[in-house]
Design goal:
By secondary structure, this protein is α/β, with parallel strands linked by helices. The protein contains three helices and five strands. The longest helix has 28 residues.
Amino acid sequence: MKVVRNLRVTVLISVILAVSACGFALRGSADLPESLSSMAIEAADLDSLLVVDLQRELSASGAKLVALNSAGASTLKIQSETAERNVISLDQRAKVGEYELHYRVVYAVDSADGKELLRDTPIELSRVYSFDEQQAIGAGQEEEIIRTELRRDVVRSIMDRLQRIQDPDGALEDRESLK
C-alpha cells in the first residue's frame, strides 16, 4: 500500500517537473503595455456582450477602465460588430441541413494623445453546425453556444493584439505588421 502511494507521488512529481520544464504555464491575464494602462471603450452599444467581455478582460489585465475622452486614457474603438447566420446546405426535402455562423468585428486603438496605435483591424470568425429540425430546441442552444465561443475568441484575439502594441512614440502599427 505504501509502495503504491510512493509511486503515485513520484509519478505526480515527475509530471509536474516535466510540464514546468517544457515552459508550459496556465493562461493568465494579458500583460498590457504601459500606454494602455488606462483605457476607454468606444462602441455603438456599450452594453453589448462583446464590450462587457472586453471590459472584464481589460480589468483582469490591470487596465483602469475610464469614461470616454478621459485625460490620459487610450481608446479601444469597436468600429463595427456583425453576426450573420447563412444556410450552407439543404437536405433532399429542401430543409436546412447546416448553418454557418459568421462573426466580424472591426476595431482600432488610439493613444491618450489621439495618435493611431492600431488602424481599423478586422477579425472574422465562422463556424458551421448541423441543424436537425427534430431537435430544434437543442439546435438553438447549440447556436447560442457557438456565438458565445466566437465572441470569446474575438476578445482573446483583441487582447493578444493589444499586448503587442508598441510605445506610442514608436512606429505606427497596422495590420501589415502582423503578416
